[in-house]
Amino acid sequence: MNKKILIVSITFLLWINGIGLLASSQENTNKILYVGGTGDGNYSSIMGAVDESASGDTIFIYNNIYVEQVLITKSLNIKGEDKYNTIIDGNFLGNTIYIASDNVTLEEISIRNSGNYTYEETNKTGSNTSSNGGGGIQIVEGVGVSDDILTMTIDYAGVFSDSNNIHISSCIIEQNYVGILMRNGSNNQVNDCLIQENNDGLNFYYGNNYVVKRNVLSDNINGMYLYEMYLSDIAYCSITANTGNGMTIAASEYNQFYMNDITNNSIGVIIINDCIGNMFYQNNFNANSMTHVRDVCMNIWDNGIVGNYWDDYMGIDADADGIGDSSYEIQMYSTDNYPYINPISTLTPSSMVIMILSPTNDEKVSDTILIKGTVIDEKEIIEVSIRIDDTEWVSVEGLEAWELSLNTSIYENGLHTLFVSAINSDDVSAVNHISFSIENLNETNNEKPVIDDTPGFTVLFVLISILMVLFIVKRKKF
Questions:
Q1: I need a surface site. Which of 64, 70, 127, 191 has the fewest CB within 10 A?
Q2: Going by C-beta distance under 8 Å and a sequence separation of 6 or more, which residues neighbour residue 325?
């Protein structure tokens, strides 16, 4: 009987292993399709390759000018040979590229000549005529954006996406109505791009956890526009020589803006419509003709350690620590408490890495928890601090490895944001953040947590398999 059980068990394990090998072999069938060039089987158009591709494939585009509109409905990696000479020209018709699938990458491509936006005389939330920027949806101070942006047809962008995990890098985006327009997305990235000579450079609507770094936004009417954006990082960008606003931010919360050069625009940054918790530090504000910043929402203009450089700051630095001895008052309601005396070098990104090990992003916590993590940098770390939401910064124990005990019962149940800031011996600082949820029991909410005691599929599958083996053995025995 033992021998029979052994044979059945081995057969079962081989069957499971075979399924795994089959899945693995299917995962490795992704291919590369070529557009242009002289190779056999190369496609003459990008859409021809897209139509014949499968999710996970790579499309490599040789240098040429491709006059077409590209619709992407699969998870693809699309790479040009050289961003200066691999050009997709929309011929002023609709979106040059429309990304309608998650997990798409674009790199080393020039994208130009989208369609134009025809705007109506008024929007739903006010009687003001829409401005020329923001795809006709640009918020005018005191006027909200129409909710139609959530559902309206977008046909005037160099790149339009309403998907997640979209990575655009090392591209040239020029001469479109809106360079890149993203809505309803999460975890999207735009990095190392030249975005120039558009009506609007970047438009982001209803998104979270974006990364926008090392881009040049120049010679547009408006550089960047954010509406209902959350927990995103905009850093190491040059936002310069835009004839309107460098950045317009509305109804957005807990985003970080650091190490950006915001120069030679009409208005550097304008913030309106209930923005809270947005943090600006180590940015240069220089030669913006009307004003550097207009913030009607009282956001955060330093990280509690260092602030920003303002070319019209009139304070002194008696202790020669590089930080002004008096604050810089920002137009309307805000203050930079630690303004820099001299411009900040934003050309070389800091090598500092802040890792939050516990809690993890989106983790549910209760009672007293241990917040801990590490900081890695070439320079000596001299201070690490944390804060929850808009509370005061609190110093932690340790530097390279740090921790702090936190009693979560002093906070309301629900979603919160943990910020961690570190500064090194060169007065360079960095901030990282995660979201977590507090779920404490209390007198007004003493329901027991619901425990799902339904066996998972894997458990049921194993139990059924064991019963089948026992049944076969029993039948053989009798």
A1: 127
A2: 315, 316, 317, 318, 319
